[in-house]
Automatic annotation (TrEMBL):
InterPro entries: CheY-like_superfamily, NreC/VraR/RcsB-like_REC, Sig_transdc_resp-reg_C-effctor, Sig_transdc_resp-reg_receiver, Tscrpt_reg_LuxR_C, WalR-like. It comes from Alkalilimnicola ehrlichii (strain ATCC BAA-1101 / DSM 17681 / MLHE-1). GO terms for molecular function: DNA binding. This is Two component transcriptional regulator, LuxR family. Keywords: DNA-binding, Phosphoprotein.
Length: 214
């Protein structure tokens, strides 16, 4: 089946917490086509509010955002409007991030080290109803040590990452707007799924998988 661009101007939401980065990519996208209209958001929360007010053909979103991450924002957008087309545009080349994004409903994943034309091509393909995986996203080669991370939901992965980074349950509850007890229950479930005994083991696994830096 031939993929077609949406009729009329293409509306894009660019989500990144660095103003200089947003300005550069906005310029790139607007120069790609005079019909592309780009709106900016600097956090997951502001992106969610923007999508509640307006319909966008493609949301181009970073993973590392202040407050809720791009993956958590993706999960919230999918619950609210599953038809939203999201391209994750991240510095992370580790396969676990691409797997989490795609399994969470993203239509594509590319890295910020990609050539400019890769971003333009990805937006075009996703707007036309397709999917896109960047050429420099590394594929997993049967890494049994970290394969269990694929079994985590978007919310579980976010809590796993925050716990591994050293965030306490109260801080995570505040960031994700959930109760302390809910965080504790998720933590227990994550440890059981991954056969881990404590947060220190979570941290070591997260470092091996490239989820956090040592």
């Amino acid at each position: 089946m031939t993929q077609r661009q949406p009729p009329g101007p293409l509306t894009l939401l660019l989500v990144d917490d660095h103003a200089v980065v947003r300005a550069g990519y906005r310029r790139l996208l607007e120069q790609a086509s005079r019909c592309w209209q780009v709106t900016e958001a600097d956090s997951g929360e502001s992106a969610y509010r923007a999508c509640a007010r307006e319909r966008f053909d493609v949301v181009v979103m970073d993973i590392s955002l202040p407050g809720i991450s791009g993956l958590e924002t993706l999960a919230r957008l999918q619950r609210r409007a599953p038809e939203i087309r999201v391209l994750i545009f991240s510095m992370h080349e580790e396969p676990v991030f691409a797997e989490q994004a795609l399994s969470g409903g993203a239509a594509g994943y590319i890295t910020k080290s990609s050539a400019p034309e890769v971003l333009v091509e990805a937006v075009q393909r996703i707007a036309a109803g397709g999917h896109y995986l960047g050429p420099d996203v590394r594929c997993r080669h049967g890494d049994a040590d970290t394969a269990g991370l694929q079994s985590l939901s978007a919310r579980e992965f976010e809590i796993f990452r925050l716990l591994a980074e050293g965030c306490g349950s109260a801080e995570i509850a505040r960031l994700l707007n959930i109760s302390y007890k809910t965080v504790a229950n998720y933590g227990s479930g994550i440890r059981e799924k991954l056969a881990l005994n404590n947060v220190a083991e979570m941290t070591r696994l997260a470092i091996r998988a490239g989820v956090i830096k040592a």
